[in-house]
Amino acid sequence: MKKPVFVLLLTALLIAALLSPFASSKPDGLDRAAGDLGFQVKANENGLLEAVFPDYKISGMQNEFFATSLAGVLGVLLTFTAAYVLGKIVSKRGKNPL
């Protein structure tokens, strides 16, 4: 991994670990609209997929600060890994077209 990518990853991990617990607990735009328009309960009942980190926390952890911080760090790692792997696949296809 190149140094700038590594530095950016570490920066994102630090931000996720330190600032995630201070995010607003108020509903985001989509949750707010669902509540205002009255389909929040229906949306919760008919969910096709479960969230990886519901409410941006690791379920089962007693300490809410660390549960949120860990969810942020794991979210950054999952997103980075997916982007990195996809980038490798796309860059290999560009060199050897089908």
Describe this protein with a few key phrases.
65% helix, 98 residues, mainly alpha
What report would you give on this structure?
With 98 residues, this protein is mainly alpha-helical. The protein has a domain at 52-98. It contains 4 helices and no strands. Helix 1 (3-19) runs antiparallel to helix 4 (64-95). The longest helix is centred in the C-terminal third of the chain and has 32 residues, at 64-95. The radius of gyration is 18 Å and the shape is extended.
Largest sheet: none
Number of strands: 0
Strand-and-helix sequence, N→C? HHHH
- The portion of residues assigned to helices is 55-70%
Low-confidence stretches: none
**Strand proportion:** under 5%
Structural class: mainly alpha
Average per-residue pLDDT, rounded, comes to 84
Distance between the termini: 27 Å
The radius of gyration over CA amounts to: 18 Å
Cα shape: extended
Helical region count? 4
Short précis:
The chain has helices at 3-19, 29-37, 40-45, 64-95. The chain is mostly helical. It has a domain at 52-98.
Question: What's the topology here?
Answer:
Elements: H1 3-19, H2 29-37, H3 40-45, H4 64-95
